[in-house]
Design a protein that fits this description.
Length: 180
Amino acid sequence: MGTDELYNFVFKVVLIGESGVGKSNLLSRFTKNEFNHESRTTIGVEFSTRTVQMENYTIKAQIWDTAGLERYRAITSAYYRGAVGALLVYDVSKHLTYESADRWLKELLDHADPHIVVMLVGNKTDLENLRTVPLVEAKDFAEKRGLMYMETSALDSTNVEHAFNEVLTAIHKKVASREV
Ligand code: GDP
């Protein structure tokens, strides 16, 4: 950490969901404003950070990506340790990736802090003509499980900032209320 990099909180946020739904691209869009058309082959957990300002606080968002391990169901408990937020991502054009959301949620709740902030994220809204998961269905699913919900496109940037910022704001509210 450089001496010029001062912050009040570090929030660890994990990305989970099936392989190919766009987790790495949501991460690179949010932290570097970059998008990669090729699927990555890197194996191993990694994270990127971005510093955001919230009220009087500077928050360092440390966003973790499974970096391919999810396809082997090889995510370890270290991945979830200390996480205060999670984006459970599916692809709006691939119904199977949505159907596995409950399994990911269970895995998350088995390993993470029960107070973790979770947002269900339907990515790839730019593929509207290929959509197989109706927005209302996913929204209803999220509401029933007490999750936040957002649809995004890492390709055209729709709602990417919004999704991460909503999660960070919700975490910040929880942290602030616990301080009182
Ligand atoms: P991950 O395996 O969940 O990390 O998914 P990636 O970020 O590697 O993306 C998988 C593939 O989907 C890549 O070919 C990306 O270019 C593509 N992709 C990711 N996000 C979007 C999106 O919002 N729209 C479209 N059309 N393609 C996307």
